[in-house]
Amino acid sequence: MAKQISDFFYDSKVMFKRCMKIALRNPEALVQATITPIFLMLMFGAVFGNIADVGAYNYVDYILPGIILQAVAQATQYTAINVNADMTKGIIDRFRSMPLAKSALLIGHAGASVVRNVMTTVVIIGTAFIVGFRPQAGFVDWLVIIGVLLLSVTAITCFAVFCGLRAKSPEGASGLMFPLFILPFISSGFAPTETMHTAIRWFAEYQPMTPIINAVRALMLGHPPGNDLWIALAWTSATAILAFAFAVRRFKRKM
Amino acid sequence: MESIVSVSNLQKSFKSLKVLKDVSFDIPKGSIFALLGSNGAGKTTVVRILSTLLSPDGGTATVCGYDVEREGDAVRAAISLTGQFAAVDEVLTGRENLQIIGELGRIPNLKNKIHEWLVTFDLEEAADRPVSTYSGGMRRKLDIAMSLMGSPEVIFLDEPTSGLDPQNRLAMWELVKNLARDGTTVFLTTQYLEEAESLADNIAILHEGRIIAYGTPGNLKAILPQRGAHLNFASDADAEKAMKILRENGITVAGLSQEMPTLEEVFLTLIGEKQDGEPNG
Ligand SMILES: Nc1ncnc2c1ncn2[C@@H]1O[C@H](COP(=O)(O)OP(=O)(O)O)[C@@H](O)[C@H]1O
Ligand SMILES: [Mg+2]
Known about the structure:
With about 260 residues, chain A is mainly alpha-helical. Helix content of chain A is about 75%, strand content about 0%. Chain A has one domain (about 1-250).
């Protein structure tokens, strides 16, 4: 048993290194995943900063959580694409015919995805500071923010891994991810839900991005996150666990 | 002799397409075995079942004494697979590819081992270039080097020479023979009778879901269709001379070249024999 566990960690570590290496050979994807959200942030600031009614908020403070989640969703499509590329090329047959821990390859992809997202998120938050982001969060608040964001990244990553396994082609894999790209726009990310039409408002209030964004925003600005934090934690952990379980099941399936 | 792979009454269908109807054969330890069949005969399907990638619908198969269905992990520890399409990471270098598989195989002293493999496979110069810049032959070599790293007892090579030029093809034959000399059992598939005959200790011919012939190249030669020969001479003069000798003996020759029966002719002969009530298997 102990041997199985250490084998599992070792196999996953090697796979993680492999996935990281492959991702770094395509730096354009990483750069694009960082530049696009920064551009979005500047553009939203310039275009809506003066007209959007976000109450007492500074607009950058208001949209940063939404920008981060949108960036994560967008960047994580590469995870789906990479997983799918592995599954549809000969390499998967090699790994499957080796005596490896079954989920090691998936863990490797997921780990590399989380690390890439942490890198881009740090750059985005850094840029936000330059353009006027003024958080009020204390040390503990920041720890909770990091926890919530990490869980969100993990959940979106697990979903991406599943999409990568499910799709028949890399294009299909990023296609399955598409709803995730737009969810942040139909949430409290860029405007308060109260300002939306009834149907959209109902959707925006009940979809998972809204409690995550609300919780992160509240914590960043030093407000109590209230129920949003618990709802965000429930959504992200449930998504991560379910998506990963389905992914592993799919991966193990023999024809 | 002790058999290392044993397949009995294997069956596999994809939806209504019955690919394997009744496939049975044994492979002696340390030998070269060729599964010969035309495109779509089910060769890859057999390989995928034996390498635990695919579940059969019926029948049993064991590798090194382990059942491919129930003891997958033990089978995987004993084999390695080189599929029909190169299983390499294009964006990584040859060395990095070997490194990953070597680490997964927990190979001790890996750095030196990788160097040895690169030298053996004549890939040293290209070692630090991305595989996407490799030629087809180099990719194959890397692919097979990756498969051999764990010193498997049985190596599966699915159409190892398809897409190779004649020179690389001969190099591959040499490699396969060396492997067997070192005690590895080689299971290869091919569409070419010539390849099976010159490489394998045993040949099984897969046709319409069944093994329609099994034997050594010598056995098979005795029952396969007649073959002619293409002869090439060093000079026209030599050719003239040879012609003259043949003519003097009353043999007229229009042209000379090695001529193998096509797989279709082989099937027709073998199936014809079966219908005459003389099964070969
Ligand atoms: N996963 C699959 N689903 C449906 N049909 C398949 C699948 N794999 C193989 N086949 C079919 O089974 C037959 C045998 O395929 P294969 O084993 O690849 O043949 P070979 O390797 O001898 O060329 C072919 O007709 C092929 O189209
Ligand atoms: Mg094939």
